[in-house]
Amino acid sequence: MTVLEPGFGMGINFLTTWAAWRADPARCERLHFVSTEKHPFTRADLRSVYAKTVSDPSIAALADKLTEAWPMLVPGTQRLEFEEGDNTEEDEIRRRYARQMTAKFFQSV
């Protein structure tokens, strides 16, 4: 399954999608989450925000994994892999995934 999200933000959509994918016994083999973010959070900011906003223990555990893997903020594409490579988050939209996406998250501007 490929999910395209323009605007990663705090990563709440990513975390809830990852949790739902993990909980589904009939899930597909791989979750591929593609996202962009113009102003990404730092690792410290994510930890702080998650500590104040995430109350579900299963989501909190995934938030911990995400913050541990969060890269240094540098321009370009970042790739994070979880679940032994079965779950991937990328911060740059690639045209080939846009044609194959299963779900989209849109935000009002």
Describe this protein's structure:
This protein has 109 residues and is of the alpha/beta class. The protein has one domain: Rossmann fold. Helices cover 37% and strands 19% of the residues. It has a 5-stranded mixed sheet with strand order 3-4-2-1-5, covered by helices on one side. Helix 1 (12-23) packs across helix 3 and helix 2 runs antiparallel to helix 3 (57-69). The longest helix is centred in the middle third of the chain and has 13 residues, at 57-69. It is globular, with a radius of gyration of 13 Å. Mean pLDDT is 82; it is low at 89-98.
In short:
37% of the residues lie in helices and 19% in strands. With 109 residues, it is α/β, with parallel strands linked by helices.
Widest sheet: strand ordering: 3-4-2-1-5
Q: How much helical structure, as a percent, in the residues?
A: 25-40%
Tell me the strand percentage band. Answer: 15-25%
Provide the low-confidence segments as ranges.
89-98
